[in-house]
Specification:
35 strands, disordered N terminus, Dipeptide-binding Protein, domain 3, 22 helices, alpha+beta, 26% helix, 5-stranded mixed sheet, Dipeptide-binding Protein, domain 1, 2 domains, 13-stranded mixed sheet
Length: 737
């Protein structure tokens, strides 16, 4: 049997604490969409405002390097404290050292075997985590502890092979489905309203559409917009929506509208192509590779890319040093969005290098992985051939991680990491700053040229000039806060040839040359603009969709498309308290949840079932080997009988955030059906800050909440939903095929 082994460095599993404390992804229910209407938009609270704070407020992970220990031995006829999970393509076995499974009993699939030794002294108790209000931070919101889950979470973070990662997350999804720390209600749907002269308006769950890839019918009508001399005509996308970037400096922006703009006017190292979710594609980086343990990554920068300054009609070539400086500047700014760089990268040790320097470091072999293939490369030419690239290059960015992280490419695709030329930002200080930092070899020397916080002159310049320099398919031409924003096609975009290619492949359509966001908080204003054909696309509340159905202008019709979003709604059960510390009770409550009534009566059909903590269609999501929960009162009663508890002995209080009518209605439905099991159930509304305080410290029995992603990786769900701060003395995995 072929065997591949890896010994993982071990650290306290506090990583994803940042994802809640700093990101504000915990969903109070406020709408965060600029082109669709969330079913949760009735909440009076904005979660992003309620939960953000600086990562400095959270304890940093502790890293401990340990000696290798032997991998799980296959002995005995049964399992001893080990869990065996069959996934679609692998069998995943996880347990303490010395536990294992009999090989002959395993299905005919390759196996991933994970073994560990827990450091009981260093692992904080559940009560200690409650005292520190670490719920939905260092520990999952249910305060469930299962070292098997923590071990798999850590392996999933550090493995880079996408097939192994998928199997690990399949296993975690299946285990969460069986242990039920949270009852997953489902993934929200969104209604996307447009005229059918708009073509190829694709949907990606974390990235807004790149408007230059969206096309329009050549015969679409032409109408004045009412903003200057602009017209909505073929080749101009007009979106009637709401919002405004919190900042035109990506280092200070952490909301949907700003990221949508950055995605169209800037370029990141890697990106997700259209609606792809499982693997990134090249953008400013044309190829990448990493060392054997995944702690050092090399990104080959595309040559010939120029950033366009339309105000001064000036161009700035982009190279690896620009990438390094912008990453470092985002971290230096200290705004909450920098938690991802603070957690997953070591920018003080990262730097730009030449192609020759890369060749020297590659001599001992680097791992390149792309589109399901893997190869050991020992030169730049070999790496570029692996990615099928034969154009210019502009240096290599060496990115050092404090520990392996398999989701790092997803983080790097986030639009706030769009690259801005250092020379534009530093101006007359460029040469001086570069020499002081030895052209990036000592990046922390840039602290003398970039201030922390919003008083930094670079931040003020970007804010005042609406960024002012652009590498993406569009540039910002003009705008008026909360009124309109105009993007114009960038004549110096490095991939401009794609537009003529698209038009030659679609002779009846034209590519987008201009984007105009017409902004209004009033739904009726947006609806009226759409009804008249002034807007091609509009954000319309679900309760008002009838106003935009079956409309006609000439030969064209209005269209409402439904897409599944990664915005998840779920019910948290406090697994540290009776009776929820009994897995059979948790499962019984899952079977006693009236899903269909919730979907129809509460969410008007705009929700799809999900059975675990990974969004539908994402890496690791599976319908294999899971309980497909539906309302089954008899099954719930049977499980309660098996659990040994008497439901009438228990009172359950369900919390939800006040002002969120959907969650109020859901809680009432749960009160009715769980009451039929014999529990005494009450429903209580709490203000959003009070709910966060109580649930974070474990002062609850049940509550309803939502979750939306920071980046497109299952770890952004699995970690917060399942981790429990277990500290390992050793942790190993082996793939046996």
């Amino acid at each position: 049997m072929a065997s591949k082994k890896m010994v993982l460095s071990v650290f306290i599993v506090f990583l994803m604490a940042f994802a809640v404390v700093a990101s504000g992804c915990l969903g109070g229910g406020g709408s965060s969409s600029t082109t669709t209407s969330s079913p949760s938009a009735t909440s009076s609270s904005s979660p992003s405002q309620s939960t953000t704070s600086s990562p400095s407020a959270t304890s940093s992970p502790t890293t401990t390097t340990v000696s290798p220990t032997k991998v799980v031995q296959y002995v005995g006829d049964h399992l001893s404290n080990a869990t065996v999970v069959e996934t679609p393509n692998y069998v995943v076995i996880v347990g303490p050292e010395g536990s294992g499974a009999k090989v002959s009993n395993l299905p005919n699939k390759p196996a991933i075997v994970v073994s560990y030794k827990v450091n009981e002294k260093k692992t904080p108790t559940i009560q200690e985590l409650m005292n520190e209000s670490q719920g939905f931070g260092a520990i999952n919101p249910a305060f469930l502890r299962d070292p098997n889950l923590d071990a798999l979470i850590k392996v999933g973070r550090e493995v880079t092979d996408i097939k192994i990662r998928e199997a690990i997350y399949n296993a975690l999804y299946i285990m969460a489905n069986k242990e039920v720390p949270e009852i997953i209600i489902g993934d929200n749907k969104a209604a996307r309203v447009s005229w059918n002269w708009v073509h190829d308006w694709y949907y990606n769950p974390v990235l807004a559409p790149r408007w230059d890839l969206v096309m329009e019918d050549k015969n679409a009508p032409s109408q004045a917009i009412g903003i200057g001399d602009y017209k909505n005509e073929p080749g101009t996308i007009v979106e009637a929506t709401f919002g405004w970037p919190k900042s035109f400096d990506p280092a200070f922006d952490y909301e949907t509208f700003g990221w949508a703009v950055y995605h169209n006017v800037g370029d990141t190292l890697v990106t997700y192509w259209k609606n792809e979710t499982k693997e990134v594609s090249p953008d400013l980086a044309v190829a990448w590779a990493h060392n054997k343990n995944g702690t050092v990554w090399y990104f080959v920068i595309r040559g010939g890319v120029k950033a366009y300054d339309p105000k001064n009609n000036q161009l700035y070539p982009i190279n690896a040093t620009d990438v390094e400086f912008e990453f470092w500047r985002v971290l230096r700014a200290g705004y909450s969005v920098n938690w991802m760089l603070a957690t997953y990268t070591n920018l003080s040790a990262s730097y730009a290098m030449s192609e020759n320097e890369f060749n020297k470091e590659a001599q001992n072999g680097l791992i390149a992985e792309y589109q399901g293939k893997e190869e050991t490369v020992k030169s730049l030419n070999q790496l570029l051939q692996f990615f099928g690239y034969n154009g210019q290059t502009a240096g290599v960015y060496k990115l050092v991680l404090p520990h392996p992280y398999g989701g790092i490419l997803s983080v790097l695709a986030d639009p706030y990491l769009m690259v801005i030329p250092a020379k534009y930002m530093l101006g007359d200080k460029y040469e001086e700053a570069m020499k002081a930092a030895d052209w990036g070899r000592k990046p922390d020397e840039w602290a003398n040229y970039v201030q922390k916080g919003s008083d930094d002159p670079i931040h003020k310049m970007l804010q005042d000039n609406m960024i002012g320099v652009f590498t993406g398919p569009f540039y910002i031409k003009e705008g008026k806060e909360n009124s309109y924003l105009v993007l114009e096609r960038n004549p110096y975009y490095w991939n401009a040839s794609i537009w003529s290619k698209l038009e030659s492949e679609n002779p009846g359509l034209v590519t987008t040359k201009r984007v105009i966001y017409v902004l209004s908080k009033d739904p009726q204003t947006r609806i009226s603009l759409f009804q008249k054909g002034v807007a091609d696309i509009a954000a319309v509340p679900l309760t008002r969709l009838n106003a935009v159905q079956n409309l006609k202008i000439g030969n064209f019709e209005s269209r409402i498309d439904t897409v599944v979003t990664p915005d998840m709604v779920f019910v948290v059960l406090n697994a540290a308290k009776e009776p929820f510390n009994n897995e059979l009770v948790r499962e019984a409550l899952a079977w006693a949840t009236p899903y269909n009534k919730i979907y129809q009566a509460v969410y008007n059909g705009y929700m799809v079932p999900n059975y675990g903590p990974i969004p539908v269609g994402w890496l690791g999501y599976t319908t294999c080997c899971v309980n497909k929960y539906s309302f089954n009162l008899n099954k719930a009663l049977q499980l309660l009988k098996q659990s040994g508890i008497n439901p009438s002995d228990y009172s359950i209080t369900i919390y939800y955030n006040s002002g969120n009518t959907e969650r109020q209605d859901m809680a009432t439905l749960l009160q009715n059906t769980w009451g039929q099991l014999g529990f005494k159930v009450t429903v209580t509304a709490l203000s959003w800050p009070t709910l966060l305080q109580k649930t974070g410290s474990g002062d609850f029995q049940v509550y309803i909440v939502g979750w939306a992603p920071d980046f497109l990786d299952p770890d952004d769900y699995i970690g917060p939903f399942l981790q429990s701060a277990v500290v390992f003395d050793s942790l190993n995995y082996e793939v046996i095929s």
